[in-house]
From TrEMBL:
InterPro entries registered for this protein in UniProt: Ergot_Alk_Oxidoreductase, NAD(P)-bd_dom_sf, NmrA-like
Pfam families on file: NmrA (PF05368)
The name this protein goes by in its record: NAD(P)H-binding protein
Organism: Amycolatopsis rhabdoformis
SUPFAM superfamilies linked: NAD(P)-binding Rossmann-fold domains
Residues of the NmrA-like domain: 2-219
Length: 277
């Protein structure tokens, strides 16, 4: 049985069906099963990473470890989870981290992942670390203004980025969770090409079937926009600090997805077509 943390989030919603399609039994974790939208073939279980005793580890042999970027002490959560998993006889932990750790970034998000990676490595079960770069799915919030104003507002200085599709992360995670040979490996994961925000907006416009203007916003306005979308202030600060530190690196393309999956990564145009529905 594979316990999937973050099963209701961006990565988890892609990973649960991918594992089930590969024939693996899945236990999907959420704090609120009544609200959770999860593939009906999975067993949905309640649990909270802030209360390690609530985690349903009995009968679990592999865990996909994902904590939210939006709050909670993720290092404490992952340390407690890894130790509880070891006590429960779990044989393999696969942790979702970030390329920020590969690049030695010191923003709060990358630092927390670096510490959590260490806890996973030290816990006892075999481990694999997946370090994706920025997700295409982060661009979903562009859709609203693209539709209402015919424009997308992008923070000034946003870099070219080799964005990755969450289904590619899910495909790699499925491979690593269901086949041997990945123990002790750390994989950096990106899409196949770096695109500037302006190029991304153009592709989104093509998917929508109408031109969408690309508008650069000064940082204070960009911060206010994220706060208005409901982001906690701490998450906004962390995201901007991460962005500042990753700006010179987000264009770097790793060939890991193609190497592991034997096919090219999904493109931003693939993502945009699906996102506009
Ligand atoms: N976005 C990016 O560009 C990017 C790039 C690299 C790495 N990452 C990393 O990806 C991770 C986020 O993945 P995501 O975007 O797929 O997540 P997400 O969409 O933000 O969803 C968060 C998930 O965490 C669960 N969760 C939150 N608090 C919890 C708690 N106390 N106990 C149990 N579950 C809890 C939520 O489940 P319920 O609400 O159902 O309980 C939900 O499934 C972060 O570690 C982030 O640093 C993101």
């Amino acid at each position: 049985m594979i316990l999937v943390l973050g099963a209701t989030g961006k990565v988890g919603r892609a990973l649960v069906p991918a594992l089930l399609d590969a024939g693996a039994p899945v236990r999907a974790l959420t704090r609120d099963p009544a609200r959770a939208v999860v593939d009906p073939r999975a067993e949905v279980v309640r649990g909270d990473l802030d209360h390690v005793e609530s985690l349903p580890l009995a009968g679990v042999d592999r865990v996909f470890v994902l904590t939210s970027g939006h709050g909670g002490d993720t290092v404490a959560q992952e340390t407690a989870l890894a130790q509880a998993a070891a006590r429960a006889g779990v044989s393999r932990l696969v942790k979702l981290s970030t390329t920020g750790v590969h690049f030695g970034q010191t923003d709060p998000i990358s630092l927390a992942h670096a510490r959590a990676e260490q806890a996973i490595r030290e816990a006892g079960p075999a481990w694999t670390i997946l370090r994706p770069g920025a997700f295409m799915a982060n661009r979903r919030f562009w859709l609203q203004s693209a539709r209402t104003d015919g424009a997308v507002y992008v923070p000034e200085g946003d870099p070219a980025s080799a964005l990755i599709h969450v289904r590619d992360i899910a495909a790699v995670a499925t491979l690593v969770l269901t086949t041997p040979g990945h123990e002790g490996a750390t994989y950096e994961l990106t899409g196949g090409e770096a695109l500037t925000p302006e190029q991304q907006v153009k592709i989104l416009g093509e998917a929508l079937g109408r031109p969408v203007r690309y508008v650069e916003e000064p940082e204070p306005a960009a911060r206010a926009r994220l706060l208005a979308l409901g982001w906690p202030a701490r998450a906004v600060d962390g995201a901007f600090e991460l962005k500042r530190q990753s700006a010179g690196r987000e264009h770097v393309v790793f060939d890991t997805v193609a190497r592991l999956l034997g096919r090219e990564p999904l493109t931003f145009a693939d993502w945009a077509r699906e996102a506009v529905g």
